[in-house]
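User: Fold this; tokens only.

Assistant: Input:
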Amino acid sequence: MKKKQKLEDLNVLNDFLLSAIANDPDVAEPFFRDVLSVLLEREIGEVTVRAQMVIPGDNLRLRGIRMDVEILEEDNSPTKCRIYNLESQMYEEDNLQKRNRFYQAKKDSKGLKRGEKNWNKLPDLYMIMIMDYDLFGKDNMMYVFENVCREFPDIEYNDGLKFIYFNVNGKNGGTKTIKQLLSYLNNSKIESVTNETIGRIHNYVSSVKESAEVREHYMTWDEWVEREIQAGLEEAVKEAVEEAVKEAVEDTKKETTITATKALLLDILADKGEISTELQNCIDEADLASLKQWARMAAKVDSIEAFVDEMQKEINGI
């Protein structure tokens, strides 16, 4: 089994810590404002941060998305708003560019109200990924993509869309300040603090790590289960489910047990696809016995669709 890291040793790009920062009402806004200001090399205004935002598919058969962190910046531009979808990517994934195209499309599909005729009200959208490997193999610390005219590259194509990939190990193509921040995000220790802005960011991170609520939540998170799932280790997942449920039953009251089991089930399902509103509601209403059974079931299937089929068979007594 993969040994679980101590909370103090987690780096910002760790899924749990990034989510904890985004959910902290005192830390989230100044933290992400500072991070974006450095990465985009411009001042960022007042922001609103949303963690683990889900846009479900239109039905159980269609895929939705779940974004790590969504940051909304109000400004004086014609669109009145910029949206930054920021994610960490710590393992190589096939067809990542098409995956991001799908995420962008789902996000844009929610950008205008029904009947709106002014397309210019669609917010500018920045799809930002911070990665610990070089997707494009040029040893750059950043790659910025936006739509251009191949025949006339100097023509501005103002659709307000950018895809930006940051490589924490890159040596070229960015500023010293960006490199320092990327190094800190990948190794979030006091010795990685090299300037005043990163010092503030480190203070925010330390504040989150010292939170009693975050520490309690991390004890039941078992993030390493997700990594085992991604590696296809079904037996490890089944063992993790049994261990987590057993510990929850022994150490907590029934309501806490339900919460912990539900969180574990959702973590397993998140690796299989995107969880729709209908499925989320069904899980929220389930009793402890059903949640335990569904967690074991989720460990055996390859997709959300297969899980829904099995779950519906169980509900219908087939």
